[in-house]
Design goal:
Length: 252
């Protein structure tokens, strides 16, 4: 079993197309020759096409931060899997806590988006995470178990080959408070066990589980040294080419 480390930036609502191109041009030489891992950036919809063009041949994947499940239709403001693919995206973040918190994304919606992404060969990065109140009330595992089960509803083992899961404790996002490597590992091991229950041994062994929440160049190595942490989903520290590159090169 080997899970290629997946180091992904999530730019959230930052950067125009031109800014994305500058970032990628600056990151390329910093990442040249780095192998044995997948680098990726989820950019705003409006920057996907330019970013994908700039990233050609660099090995950096360009992705989106959300998608709608219908192929086309009267859905003002929404964007389909086919549109993302045509623009050059190869992965999509689903169910980020900011979508759940501010835009009403539910587990059921995430599950529908997941089906659409898989049907359209877009790699899905499904996010789960508990709030501080839930952690303090000892509900972490119950909350995460329910979120994972709901978000993966309808998924079968034969379709799960490209699935990526991200654990992002809400209290660690943008707060500077990282879960300790041991805290994150405890949750990742739990999530892998839940994947085993839902999808079987093979999918559990092969699915990459990323950690997100205040990942920085100086804490990524210790997180990545845990057996069930297979990558990172990085907000703030992925906005600058040098800190992004340091994160991608966590062990170099
Ligand atoms: P920060 O790295 O800024 O804490 O954001 C984490 C995140 O939400 C990545 O998806």
């Amino acid at each position: 079993m080997s899970r290629t480390p997946f180091l992904a930036g999530n730019w959230k609502m930052y950067k125009t197309g031109a800014e994305a191109v500058s970032f990628i041009e600056a990151a390329k030489p910093l990442l040249a020759g780095v192998s044995g891992r997948q680098a990726a950036v989820a950019v705003p919809f409006t920057a996907i096409a330019e970013a994908a063009k700039a990233a050609q041949g660099s090995g950096v994947l360009i992705g989106a931060q959300n998608v709608y499940w219908e192929k086309e239709g009267a859905y003002t403001g929404e964007i389909s899997v086919g549109m993302l693919k045509a623009a050059g995206a190869s992965f999509v973040i689903l169910g980020h806590s900011e979508r759940r918190q501010f835009f009403g994304d539910t587990d059921e919606w995430v599950a529908r988006k997941l089906q659409a992404a898989l049907e359209g060969s877009l790699v899905p990065v499904v996010c789960v995470g508990e709030s501080l109140a839930q952690r303090e009330a000892n509900e972490t595992f119950a909350v995460l178990g329910a979120q994972l089960k709901g978000s993966l509803a309808g998924l079968t083992a034969d379709k799960a080959a490209t699935l990526v899961v991200a654990y992002e404790p809400v209290w660690a996002i943008g707060t500077g408070k990282t879960a300790t490597a041991a805290q994150a590992q405890e949750v990742h091991a739990f999530l892998r066990g839940e994947l085993r229950n839902l999808l079987g041994d093979k999918a559990a062994a092969e699915t990459r589980i990323l950690y997100g929440g205040s990942v920085k160049p100086d804490n990524v190595k210790s997180l990545m040294s845990e057996p069930d942490i297979d990558g990172a989903l990085v907000g703030g520290a992925a906005l600058k080419p040098d800190s992004f590159a340091q994160i991608v090169k966590f062990d170099v």
